[in-house]
Amino acid sequence: MKEPNLNNDKTLMGTGIAAAFIASLCCITPVTASLAGIGGIASTFSWMEPVRPYLIGLTILILGFAWFQKLKPKSQEEIDCACEDDPSFFQSKGFLGLITLLATMLMAFPYYSDAFFSNDNAQIVYVQESNVQTIIYDIVGMTCTGCEATVNNAAQQVEGVLEVKASYETQTATISFDKSKVQPEQIKQAINKTGFTVKEEISK
């Protein structure tokens, strides 16, 4: 009798999680690089953003097929062979469920990546209105909310910066700061250290 090929399950699950991980590299890298203090590599995988939807689609197809294989009714031959097999946890529905959960978390990473940056250091700062200046930087390389969080965090670490609002959709960062404590060039340098590049100052 023909025995079920358990290696196929492993291949499907492995490919699915690999596709999900690769699809998320452009979003995970900025956050992990910033947290590790090596912000210069934050934008390393930003070039992958255009293929991210295709990788997510591939992941869904692979895991969907894996679930179809697991849930489809067994043939009489497979039922007869079941007594000869002792499937491990790694071939079980439970493990496939864990793989699916992990893949989902990886693909959804951009939507919760800002949770990795603490706001505990937020303080009330009193600044003379005449000293408050707002600039808008055109920034190259941001592709997701993880990139936004990295730019926000980098700028907020600069003393004198009051508020930062980065947007990957407009490729800009709007920054309010105390001009008596910090100059725009210092903020620009802090952002550039993340690996994202301040292309130009759109307005003051």
Write up this protein.
There is one protein chain. The protein is elongated and about 85 Å long. A hairpin with a 4-residue loop joins strand 2 and strand 3 (172-178). The model has no long low-confidence stretch (mean pLDDT 78). The N and C termini lie far apart (77 Å). The chain has a 4-stranded antiparallel sheet with strand order 2-3-1-4. Helix 1 (6-36) runs antiparallel to helix 2, helix 1 (6-36) packs parallel to helix 4 and helix 1 (6-36) packs parallel to helix 5. It has 2 domains: 6-111; 116-203, Alpha-Beta Plaits. Helix content is 46%, strand content 15%. It is built from 6 helices and 4 strands, in the order H-H-H-H-E-H-E-E-H-E.
Task: List the main descriptive attributes of the protein structure presented here.
single chain; 204 residues; alpha+beta; Alpha-Beta Plaits; four-stranded antiparallel beta sheet; 6 helices; 46% helix; elongated
Distance between the termini: 77 Å
Average pLDDT over all residues: 78
Shape: elongated
Task: Catalogue the unreliable spans.
Answer: none
* Strand line-up in the sheet with most strands: 2-3-1-4
Number of domains: 2
Assembly state (oligomeric):
single chain
Q: Give the topology string: H per helix, E per strand.
A: HHHHEHEEHE
What is the radius of gyration? Answer: 24 Å
User: What share of the residues lie within helices?
Assistant: 40-55%
Strand content: 5-15%
Counting H and I runs of at least 4 residues, what is the number of helices?
A: 6
Largest β-sheet summary: 4 strands, antiparallel
Query: How many beta strands in the DSSP annotation?
Result: 4
Structural class: alpha+beta
